[in-house]
């Protein structure tokens, strides 16, 4: 089983924020793909989807989708969790019976209409006068993704500036998982509609043992694992074999076929284990839409949010909904005026060079707002050392910093 690489561990530090919105944050803009009917009236200034396939997001292949969609659009059944509805045996799906509003869905967009499988969405929002901005998005996934081919990113920029990543979502190969369905049932496996499993053949085997199909001379028999002993197989030759799933073994229906010589065998298995899920940092996404929140740096007039996704396989379903921008009670990184993640002497320089100016974006959204003045200096002093591995024991005064800098230069000069 592939372990989580260091890069994911590092990303997880930035994604400790994968929770509901911070207490005290006030929503002021968003996009729910329903003209504001489900999020308090918020809509984006503009929305651009590429490719733009209209409501339902259907490519020429019925199972391939990207765009705004809902249950009413006759979606591929694997988007839908009907376990609490008219298909109680359902083991695969995201959109529950009670969710009837729109969302963005992605499923295997790599096809003749869209070679390569790249899709994107761009939304713009008015953030004039806002600071300490947080971004929240509802995310969910189900299926078997590929670490080498499936990527989903949300990046943002302010007033045409450089783009910054907000959410980076990747698959991790070799990880098995399970899903909790609307019915309350938990399943580490799903029924594979493309497996070729034939229930009548399996039933014949269960009742009468091995046989040859008179129509094509193919021999049908149970697998060697169906011996009553292998990996916890409970009963010999009953047609149920153990497969590894969800960190253990689960018995599923299966049989094998061969030609007349008995040399060629094809596995026909009803269920497959859930594996290779999507992760946000070290947090695994689930098949239940969950809100994830991250602070954004900077301030200005217009925020542009871009979704960029690539997916290239069947049985890979990614869904997001309810983009929401909120204004927090205080700066995301108070005192970090240059936005480098550390409150240090460099931030004092930014304050000194801009004292008396209107804050705008000059303090990276980490000041007190309004005019840059003594209140911002006090904020910097209070938070000096934040973001470092070991904070200073005392907050230096500006004069003390100057003397320290002079001493450092002198010390370096003596070493030459």
What would a concise description of this structure say?
With 416 residues, the chain is an alpha+beta fold. It folds into 3 domains: 26-185 and 275-327, Jelly Rolls; 193-269, no CATH class; 332-387, Dockerin domain (Type 1 dockerin domain, Orthogonal Bundle). The chain has helices at residues 6-14, 199-208, 345-354, 374-383, 398-415, and strands spanning 26-31, 46-50, 65-69, 103-107, 118-126, 133-143, 151-158, 164-171, 179-180, 186-187, 189-191, 211-212, 219-221, 240-245, 248-258, 265-269, 271-273, 278-280, 283-284, 290-295, 302-310, 316-327.
Topology:
Blueprint: H1 6-14, E1 26-31, E2 46-50, E3 65-69, E4 103-107, E5 118-126, E6 133-143, E7 151-158, E8 164-171, E9 179-180, E10 186-187, E11 189-191, H2 199-208, E12 211-212, E13 219-221, E14 240-245, E15 248-258, E16 265-269, E17 271-273, E18 278-280, E19 283-284, E20 290-295, E21 302-310, E22 316-327, H3 345-354, H4 374-383, H5 398-415
Antiparallel strand pairs: 1-22, 2-5, 3-4, 4-22, 5-21, 6-20, 6-22, 7-8, 7-21, 8-18, 9-10, 11-17, 12-13, 13-15, 14-15, 15-16, 18-19
């Amino acid at each position: 089983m592939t372990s989580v690489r260091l890069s994911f561990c590092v990303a997880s530090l930035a994604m400790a924020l994968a929770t509901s919105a911070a207490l005290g944050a006030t929503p002021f803009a968003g996009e729910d793909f329903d003209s504001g009917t489900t999020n308090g009236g918020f809509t984006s200034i503009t929305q651009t989807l590429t490719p733009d396939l209209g409501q339902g997001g259907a490519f020429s292949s019925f199972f391939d989708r990207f765009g705004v969609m809902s249950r009413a659009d006759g979606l591929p059944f694997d988007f839908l969790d009907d376990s609490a509805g008219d298909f109680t045996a359902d083991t695969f799906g995201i959109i529950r019976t009670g969710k009837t509003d729109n969302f963005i869905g992605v499923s295997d967009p790599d096809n003749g209409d869209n070679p390569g499988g790249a899709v994107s969405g761009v939304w713009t929002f008015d953030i004039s006068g806002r600071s300490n901005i947080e971004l929240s998005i509802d995310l969910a996934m189900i299926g078997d993704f590929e670490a080498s081919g499936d990527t989903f990113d949300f990046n943002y920029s302010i007033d045409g500036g450089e783009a910054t990543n907000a959410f980076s979502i990747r698959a991790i190969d070799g990880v098995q998982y399970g899903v909790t369905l609307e019915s309350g049932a938990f399943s580490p496996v799903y029924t594979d509609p493309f497996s070729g499993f034939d229930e009548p053949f399996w039933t014949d085997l269960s009742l009468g043992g091995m046989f040859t199909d008179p129509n094509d001379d193919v021999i049908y028999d149970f697998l060697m694992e169906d011996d009553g002993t292998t990996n916890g197989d409970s009963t010999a030759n009953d047609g149920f074999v153990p497969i590894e799933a969800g960190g253990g073994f689960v018995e599923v229906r299966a049989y094998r076929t061969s030609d007349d010589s008995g040399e060629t065998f094809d596995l026909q298995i009803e269920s497959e284990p859930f594996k290779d899920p999507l992760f946000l940092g070290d947090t695994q996404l689930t098949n239940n839409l969950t809100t994830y929140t991250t602070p954004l740096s900077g301030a200005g007039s217009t925020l542009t949010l871009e979704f960029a996704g690539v997916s290239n396989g069947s049985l890979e379903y990614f869904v997001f909904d309810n983009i929401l921008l909120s204004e927090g009670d205080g700066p995301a990184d108070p005192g970090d005026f240059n936005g480098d993640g550390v409150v240090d002497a460099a931030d004092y320089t930014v304050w000194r060079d801009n004292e008396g100016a209107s804050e705008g974006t000059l303090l990276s959204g980490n000041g007190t707002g309004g005019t840059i003045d003594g209140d911002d200096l006090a904020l910097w002093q209070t938070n000096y050392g934040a973001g470092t591995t070991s904070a200073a024991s005392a907050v230096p005064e500006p004069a003390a910093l100057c003397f320290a800098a002079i001493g450092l230069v002198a010390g370096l000069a003596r070493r030459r």
